[in-house]
Amino acid sequence: MNRLIGRVIMYGVFAMIGVLLWSSVSKTFFVPALWTLEMAQFCMVAYYMLGGPYSIQLGSNVRMDLFYGAWSDHRRASFDALTVFFLIFYLIILLWGGISSTAYSLGDFSGEPFSFFASLIGAFFTGGPDAALAEMGHMERSPSVWRPYLWPIKLIMVIGIFLMLLQAISELCKDVLRIRGHEI
């Protein structure tokens, strides 16, 4: 799944280039568009968050190779297995915060994001989209002049963090297999 999403999202850089190109053209020839800078930031967040798991899958992430390159495969796998635990712990905390922040941006001020999403899904299936909209409170907006809703980008971030967590677990499994002597 990360490979497919990564291959699709890598073309998202062209969307960001298009937004920034329009920003330059509109500032030069027309009235400057207020939405372009923030939309370019949103494109970059989606590009980074959804492309990161694919980057780890390919092994193209940055490493300090001062000692690591001279180590044996077994020692590298042991070190990677240890460090991926820290990554998984960090990603779990980040995912929890992302889910809470997404619930807040949809109008949940109770601090219980999972019960909010459960009631939102229940309202959608029992009463339709209108009932789900009634469950939501005042949705969070950006403080900029353009004032877009923030829940779409927060949802993309949660999906990206979840995919990164899945990829980290996959890397841990690969490292354990390498420690046991299997070829991968």
TrEMBL record:
Keyword annotations of the record: Cell inner membrane, Cell membrane, Membrane, Transmembrane, Transmembrane helix, Transport
Tripartite ATP-independent periplasmic transporters DctQ component domain boundaries: 16-176
Subcellular location(s) of the protein: Cell inner membrane
GO molecular function: transmembrane transporter activity
Keyword Transmembrane in record: yes
Lineage top rank: taxon: Bacteria
Coiled coil spans: none
Membrane-protein topology: Multi-pass membrane protein
Transmembrane segments: 7-25, 37-56, 77-96, 116-137, 149-169
Alphabetical list of InterPro entries matching this protein: DctQ (IPR055348), TRAP_DctQ (IPR007387)
Pfam families assigned to the protein according to its UniProt record, in alphabetical order: DctQ (PF04290)
Amino-acid biosynthesis is among the record's keywords: no
Any single GO CC term annotated in Swiss-Prot or TrEMBL for this entry: plasma membrane
Record's subunit section: The complex comprises the extracytoplasmic solute receptor protein and the two transmembrane proteins.
Family listed: Belongs to the TRAP transporter small permease family.
Function: Part of the tripartite ATP-independent periplasmic (TRAP) transport system.
Name used for this protein in its record: TRAP transporter small permease protein
